[in-house]
Amino acid sequence: MNDLTVTITISEKVLAKFPGIFLAYTTVSGVKVEKSSSRLIQLIKEFEEEARRSIKIEDLKNNPIVRAYRDFYWRIGIDPTKQRPASEALLRRILRGKSLPLINNVVDAGNLVSAKTLVPVGLYDLDKVKPPIILRFAENGEKFTPIGGDKEELKENQIVLADTEKILHIFPHRDSRETCIRESTRNVLIVACGVPGVPKQRVLRTAREVAELIVKEAGGLIGEIKNT
């Protein structure tokens, strides 16, 4: 798509059942996706070292932001001790002594900010998205192909971010392979996921920080920061 003006809505059914769900989103146009720079790798390393010094992995479950996402997972039928919220999983990886995976400059920027803020972030190739975009309940049997996984059938109680043709994301933890960031990506949609108990300003700040870091590392122009 050429028009980078994007609007995301949340269905009334989702809001009725889960009031407090919140999305912050923006775009970055004209990026150059490539391997992460030594500068970004150093930023990641510095954060990892600081996190290991200041955070004990056994205390992570008591963090109020982590707790809010875990509580939401229980409400939607996911055991958060088996399927971690994406942002918590990133920080846990660090606290276990591993480094964040290095994918490319755009994805690595998003992962770094998400691990810092503990807000899950989705990144999508905007040219492969067919608006309008809506956060809604899946239809029973809808197909979804996650990054790093096989195609699966969804159940009607699952919350998904979808365009007119396909599902981009299972809220708030799995992104689609179809719209993932590749070297050919030129325009990026950033979506930060909020749930009850997570301040909206934190979610908005996360979307903004991801966009700003992407611009520093991959170039491009930031669009309007919006929220649902």
What does this structure look like?
There is one protein chain. α5 (105-117) runs antiparallel to α6. The two termini are 21 Å apart. The strands form 3 sheets. This protein has a 5-stranded mixed beta sheet with strand order 1-4-7-8-9. β8 (167-170) and β9 form a beta hairpin. It is 34% helix and 21% strand. It is globular, with a radius of gyration of 17 Å. The mean pLDDT is 94. It is of the alpha+beta class and 228 residues long. The longest helix has 19 residues, at 200-218. The protein is built from 6 helices and 12 strands. The protein has a single domain (8-227), classed as Phenylalanyl-tRNA Synthetase, Chain B, domain 3. It has helices at residues 12-17, 38-54, 64-75, 86-95, 105-117, 200-218; strands at residues 8-10, 22-29, 121-125, 133-137, 143-144, 152-153, 159-162, 167-170, 174-175, 187-194, 221-222, 226-227.
What attributes characterize this protein structure?
6 helices, alpha+beta, five-stranded antiparallel β-sheet, five-stranded mixed β-sheet, Phenylalanyl-tRNA Synthetase, Chain B, domain 3, 228 residues, 12 strands, 21% strand
A few lines on this structure:
With 228 residues, the chain is α+β, with helices and mostly antiparallel strands. It is 34% helix and 21% strand. The chain has a single domain (8-227), classed as 3-Layer(bba) Sandwich (Phenylalanyl-tRNA Synthetase, Chain B, domain 3), CATH 3.50.40.
